[in-house]
Design brief:
Elements lengths: L3 E4 L4 H14 L4 E5 L6 H6 L2 E3 L7 H9 L3 E4 L5 H6 L1 H21 L4 E3 L2 E2 L23 H20 L3 E6 L1 E3 L12 H11 L2 E4 L7 E5 H13 L9 E3 L3 E3 L1 H9 L6 E4 L4 H6 L8 H7 L7 H15 L1
Parallel strand pairs: 1-2, 1-4, 2-3, 4-5, 5-7, 6-7, 7-11, 8-10, 9-13
Antiparallel strand pairs: 10-12
The structure holds serine (SER).
The site of serine has 11 residues, from loops.
Length: 314
């Protein structure tokens, strides 16, 4: 049985991942940690939570002494749009945070670390359609730069110290429990909330901006499957993964099938430039070949489930 630490456990992904991990590995074997309290009440009740700042490198070993962890999901990060407002802090959290976790992993013989990279690792010079796993990585956001640096760091720690750290380049993640914060793909989640609450949404991207996306149940499966993949099957440390690609306009059409009087307007802001530097579609064939990645949700099934869950919740 694994003993797992999740950093950034109060965020959009962490909130739901912790519950899924507790179901699989037992409540007490999954230690949630964040600088913010859990936002998802059932996470708080279901197992241990500790306040931890990934920049405070002295607090990480204390957790090790108390909980004897052997596996880490390192999710604490500042996302793309927020990062452009506070680039120095984004670098600090995303790079020094990861460095502290890798150093901790090296010193304490942590068996495996999962750290998500992002489609933001690509940039304006990468191919935008069917973007391959191995291609030009010249992002122009601080978030993207931190992701490329992190990918290199993860591979370095494996080569130098044999630390088994694995990464997937996540696309925009759509979910119904905890809102994302500070990302460029956040519009997709916001659109669902506003469609249900007000039947109206002002989108900060242009209607035809296509980006790769994934629904939370697939995201969780993706992370657990990569964690449990046999080391002998993996030929690299970083994998492209995707489930669907759509534009705000296409998502609005899909939502209208459930909420016919939903209306949308477009007022692109600085996030448009970030979105325009990212791929529209991703080639994730290596993840499919090497560890069996295979998402279940497309735009139709995801939209149906999101509307159903949010109607119940709101
Ligand atoms: N969802 C992230 C963002 O928009 C991409 O990794 O910043």
């Amino acid at each position: 049985m694994r003993r797992i630490l999740v950093t950034g456990s109060s965020g959009q992904i962490g909130s739901e991942l912790v519950l899924a991990l507790r179901e699989k590995y037992d409540n007490d074997n999954v230690i949630a940690s964040d600088i913010r309290p859990p936002q998802f009440k059932i996470q708080k009740r279901s197992g241990p939570f500790i306040v931890m700042d990934v920049l405070d490198k002295d607090s990480i070993p204390k957790i090790f002494d108390e909980y004897e962890i052997d596996t880490i999901f390192h999710l604490a990060a500042i996302l793309s749009a927020k990062g452009e407002n506070i680039p120095q802090t984004a670098w600090e959290v995303n790079i020094h945070g990861l460095f502290n976790i890798l150093e901790f992993g090296r010193k304490h013989d942590i068996e495996r670390i999962i750290w998500p990279s992002s489609i933001a690792a690509f940039g304006p010079t990468s191919p935008r359609e069917n973007t391959p796993n191995d291609t030009i990585l010249q992002p122009n956001t601080i978030y993207g730069i931190s992701k490329v640096s992190g990918e290199l760091l993860v591979s370095y720690y494996f080569k130098k110290y044999g630390l088994d750290a694995r990464s997937m380049r996540l696309p925009g993640i759509i979910s119904s429990e905890v809102l994302p914060g500070g990302g460029t793909t956040d519009y997709a989640v916001e659109m669902f909330y506003e469609a249900i609450k007000k039947k109206f949404y002002t989108c900060f991207l242009k209607g035809d901006t296509v980006l790769p996306m994934m629904y939370m149940p697939d995201c969780i499966r993706c992370m657990i499957d990569l964690l449990e993949a046999e080391p002998s099957k993996l030929k690299r440390h970083v994998y492209n993964v995707t489930a669907m690609s759509f534009s705000p306009g296409e998502l609005a059409v899909e939502i209208k099938k459930h909420i016919p009087d939903f209306k949308i307007e477009y007022k692109p802001d600085f996030r448009q430039e970030i979105a325009d530097s990212w791929p529209k579609t991703i080639d994730d064939s290596l993840a499919r070949e090497e560890w069996g990645w295979n998402p279940s949700y497309d735009i139709v099934s995801m939209t149906k489930d999101m509307v159903f869950k949010l109607r119940k919740k709101l």
